[in-house]
Amino acid sequence: MPQAQSKNRRPQAGLTRVAALLILLVWLVVLGTAAANRNNIYDWWQLRGYRAPSTVAGLATQDTMTSYARKLFYVNHPAIEDKATFGNKCPNNGGEQTIVLGCYHSDEAGIFLLGVNDPRLDGVEEVTAAHEMLHAAYDRLGTADRNNVDALLMDYYNHDLHDQRLLNTIAAYKKSEPHDLVNEMHSVFGTEVASLPTGLERYYERYFTNRAAVAAYTAQYQTEFTSRQATVAQDDAELTSLKGQITSAENALKAKETAINAQKSQLLSEHNSGNVDAYNAGVPGYNSLIDGYNREAQTVQSLINQYNHLGASRNAVALEEDQLVNDLSSVSPIKQ
Predict the structure, then answer these.
(1) Domain end: 174, 189, 220, which one?
(2) pLDDT in tens, 208-244
(3) What CA–CA distance (Å, rounded) separates 80 from 225?
(4) In sequence order, what DSSP letters do the residues of 10-77 get, joined into one string?
(5) How many Cβ atoms are within 10 Å of 63's Cβ, its own excluded?
(6) What is the enclosing helix (H) or strand (E) of 171?
(7) 175-208 burial string, b = 16+ CB within 10 Å, else e?
(8) Alpha-carbon dihedral angle through residues 303, 304, 309, 315, given to the nearest 10 degrees
(9) I want to staple 111 with a disulfide (CB 3.0 to 4.6 A). Which of 132, 161, 229, 282 is the partner?
C-alpha cells in the first residue's frame, strides 16, 4: 500500500509543476501583450469619455490629420487658450523659435495653443496644432524608425533646405534647444515646407492625408509678414533716395540764394551810386535768378511733401506689422 500511495503522488506533483509553468507562461504572454500594446492601453485610458471640442476637432480636420495623428492629438487633450492662460501653460512659448504659438509637454502631458483671432493670421492655429502633434508623434517613434527619420531630416537640412527664414529658425534652435534639434526639424519641415523629398513625403503620410494643405496655411499667414517687410524695406530705400535728393536740392538753393544776395547787393550799389543804366541792365538777370530760385524751392517742397507722405505710409505699414507681431505674442499687453 505505501508503494501504491507513492506512485499516486508523483503524477500529482508533475501536474502541479506543469500547471505552474502554464500559469507563468500565461502571465508572460499577458505581460508581453501589455508591453507591446502599452501605447494602445494608455490611449484608451486617456481617451475614455473624451470628446474633442468642436474647435479642436476642426483643427484636426483642416490639417487633414489621419486617424492615427488625430488620436495622438486628442490623447494630449489639446486646449486653445487666451494669452494669460497660454503664458502660464507655455512659458517662453514653450521654447518655440518658429512662427507657431503652442507647446507640447513631453510624455504626452498636454498640447496648448494660443488662440489667434486676427483674420489676417488665419492658419496660425492650424499650423501650430500640426506642429505640436508632430512632437507627440516623434516621441512615439521606435529607435530604428527614429534613426531612419532623423537621417532623412538631416539629409534634407544639409543638402536641400534653401529657405533663409527656415535656416534662421533652425539656427535659433541650435542655440536654444541643441538636444532637441532634429525633433524640431521634424515638426518644422512637416508643417512649413511645401515640397519635401520622396522619403519624407511618404513618412508624413502617416499623419496627413494632404500635407500640402498645412504648408499652404504657413505660406498664407507668412505672406502677411513678408509682404509688409518688403514694403517697409522698399519704402526705406526710396526714403533714403528722396532724402539725398532733398539735401542736394537744398544745397543748390543755398548756392542760388548766395548768388541772389550778391546780385542784389550789386544792384543796390549801382542804384545808390546813381548808375541807372547799370542798374536797369542788371534787373532782368536778377529777376531771372529769383524765378529760378522759386521754381527750385517748389521742387524741394514737392520732394519734402513726397518724403513726408511716403514716411507716413511706411510707418503705417510698419505699425501693421507690429500689430501682427503683437497678435502672435504670448505676452499680454499692459493696460493703461
Answers:
(1) 220
(2) 999 999 999 999 988 888 889 899 999 999 999 999 9
(3) 23
(4) HHHHHHHHHHHHHHHHHHHHHHHHHHHTHHHHHHHHHHTT----HHHHHHHHHTTB-HHHHHHHHHT-
(5) 28
(6) helix 164-176
(7) eeeeebbbbbbbbbbbbbbeebeeebeebbeebb
(8) 120
(9) 132
121 close to 324: Cβ distance less than 8 angstroms: yes
Reported as type and span, the H/E element at residue 335 is none
Please write the tens of the pLDDT for every residue from 139-174. Answer: 999 999 999 999 999 999 999 999 999 999 999 999
The structural domain count of the chain equals 2
For residue 4, is it left (φ>0), alpha (ψ between -120 and 50) or beta? alpha
Residue 21 lies inside a defined structural domain of this protein: no
* Angle, helix 124-140 to helix 211-272, in steps of 10 degrees: 130
Three-state SS at 151? helix
Taken in order 131, 134, 136, 139, the sign of the CA dihedral is negative
**CATH number of the domain that 255 lies in?**
1.10.287
Nearest C-alpha neighbor of 157 from the set 175, 171, 143, 144: 171
Residue 103, all three cell numbers: 507647446
Number of neighbouring beta carbons within 10 Å of residue 60: 22
Q: Which range marks the domain in which residue 156 is found?
A: 54-220
Cα–Cα nearest to 77, from 114, 33, 123, 110: 110
19 within a domain of the structure (yes/no): no
Spatial separation of the C-alpha atoms in residues 330 and 82, rounded to whole Å: 9
* Rounded Cα–Cα distance for residues 315 and 328 (Å): 20
Q: Helix 164-176 to helix 181-192 angle, to the nearest 10 degrees?
A: 150
Within 10 Å of residue 54's Cβ, how many Cβ atoms? 8
Q: How far apart are CA 103 and CA 131, in angstroms?
A: 9
Name the pTM for this structure. 0.73
